[in-house]
Amino acid sequence: MSELKVLSVVSEVFPLVKTGGLADVAGSLPLALVAENIAVRTLVPGYPAVKAGIGKAEAVHTFDHLFGGPARLLAAKAHGLDLFVIDAPHLYDRPGGPYVGADGKDYPDNAIRFAALGAVASGIGFGLVPAFVPDVVHAHDWQAGLAPAYLHYAGGRRPASVTTIHNIAFQGQFPRQLMPALGLPPHAFAIDGVEYYGMIGFLKAGLQLSDRITTVSPGYVGEILLPEGGMGLEGLLNLRRSALHGIINGLDTEVWNPATDALIAAPFDARTIKARVANKAALKGRFGLDLDAKALLFGVVSRLSWQKGLDMLADSLGTLLDLGAQLAVLGSGDPWLAERFTGAARANPGRIATVLGYDEALAHLVQAGCDALLVPSRFEPCGLTQLSAMRYGALPVVARVGGLADTVVDVNEMAKAAGVGTGVQFSPVSAPALQGALRRTGALWADQPTWRKIQRNAMATDVSWRLPAAQYARLFRDVVAERAA
Ligand code: ADP
Ligand code: GLC
Predict the structure, then answer these.
(1) Domains delineated in the chain
(2) How far apart are CA 167 and CA 140, in angstroms?
(3) What is the whole-number distance in angstroms between the Cα of residue 363 and the centre of ligand 1?
(4) What is the pLDDT of residues 157-207, one digit of tens each?
(5) How far apart are CA 433 and CA 431, in angstroms?
(6) Is residue 63's pLDDT more than 90?
(7) Whose CB has fewer CB within 10 Å in the chain, the N or C terminal residue?
(8) Which amino acids bring their CB within 6 angstroms of ligand 2?
(9) C-alpha 377 to ligand 2 mean position (Å)
(10) Does the predicted TM-score (pTM) go above 0.90?
(11) Ligand sitting nearest the alpha carbon of 385
(12) Distance between CA atoms of residues 224 and 214, nearest Å
């Protein structure tokens, strides 16, 4: 098996910069691909957090003019990752997040900021850095969506291109007037190019012009081919059906390892599962919940957004309290949802508690200490928190959608008889169905031997990158062979 070189092109990467699961995937898949003899370099924008986090870096290329200013391409190693960093202060050196400024609004020049990401990726694809000429350019989400377009329109012998959809709700659409600024040929603004409903579509471009498309679960493949799930791109995806593959995400099982986790109160494994009680107590202490040891403790670790369906949970708190259960919510995002949970916590002290904000360490403690993790998403391309929940012996209670449906085995009657379930699924995605799931979880909790069995099943589930990495490797090798033919 010869070595293959892959350039991963992405707008966030754990642990340097993260707003969600995309960063987790970008930060862990490359490490898993080593076992497949695939050498990945990851191209990321040089936000302040990235530049501060990489330590010593070497300039491997200088641009006199990259979309409005001078820039450098840096090579660095950090956290086991081989990185290329675009050091372009005029594009990335700003206070605020990767996409949104300190004022809470998208940066007005996001089209240019991420066009630069795609253009540099294409440059590397054509040999900008002789020491690393990739066989495959792997573009993640809309921010990298123009990489396949720049490769395509440059003409000549190019590497293979793959676009991965992590969330089709974010498509990166911009006014057509920006075409000249992007440096793509005018004829690229066409239905078989970057044009999308009269605008420039970054994700659309990637889906149209890359050799393969993947998304992060087979279940989500089925959903994005339909109008409701495809969010406008279902027509194109149906045309490209034979190029579209679903590969489930894995977890970095070193970052998420309950036996060695320094971020939790008491490490444990499947044999010492009883030690979870110490984490439950620590979690309750942190959240100010009553130390009612018998009560079933539900947890949430989530962005607070419509996608995640947590408004349905807010509508179902009466059911949860009627069960004698408690709830710990760790979330950040939309103020209207945050207010619902802080309000519920104020009204039910000791029973419901909310910590607002983004707190990586506390996320680990919630996973280690809660009994069941709620993920009532309206749609979920893959989802990672249900995977870490399983690894930490917290039973996932999930909506039967996308990757949640693919990763959690519902403890229905037959599964229980066969001893194989790992959590609870509910469908349709509605507050009454969620309430039914809360009651089912309560009934399972009342049957502790069965609960323990499900916990063990969950903890024994392989949620690592082992199998998914092999699937990516195969896809990369196939597409490279196809281009060589
Ligand atoms: P998404 O990317 O749609 O937000 P995922 O489940 O794929 O959903 O990934 C979410 C990631 O972000 C997980 O690593 C999860 O632990 C983390 N996360 C989400 N919300 C928070 C939070 N408020 N604090 C800490 N980590 C969080
Ligand atoms: C997106 C999706 C989430 C997925 C993550 C990583 O943020 O919302 O379901 O797990 O990307 O692929």
Answers:
(1) 4-250+466-484 (3.40.50.2000), 270-460 (3.40.50.2000)
(2) 10
(3) 8
(4) 999 999 999 999 999 999 999 999 999 999 999 999 999 999 999 999 999
(5) 5
(6) yes
(7) C
(8) 20-22, 25, 166-167, 216, 249, 380-384, 403
(9) 11
(10) yes
(11) 1
(12) 11
